[in-house]
Specification:
The chain is mostly beta strands. It has no helices and 6 strands. It has a single domain, classed as Jelly Rolls (Sandwich), CATH 2.60.120.10.
């Protein structure tokens, strides 16, 4: 996964997610927590967790079980 100036709030109801950062900065916000992940960092997001992710980054994204778009919900950013 590659992104430049990305900004999104999402939730997957079926899949846990693991982001492994290859380059750049991946910003994750969940409730009141904020994490800035850099090269070599690994971030775990449990299924059914609403979270923001953004920044300019290159990651490996693992979904378990495999990604299915019908289980993904994208929210408008206020």
């Amino acid at each position: 996964m590659r992104a430049k100036d990305h900004s999104e709030v999402t939730k997957n109801i079926k899949s846990d997610r693991i982001y492994y950062v290859l380059s750049g900065k991946l910003i994750i916000k969940e409730n009141k927590r904020k994490l800035v992940a850099k090269k070599g960092d690994l971030v775990f997001i449990p299924k059914n967790t609403k979270y923001y992710f953004g920044g300019t980054f290159k990651t490996i994204l693992i979904n378990s079980p495999p990604f299915d778009p019908k289980n993904e919900k994208i929210f408008k950013i206020k």
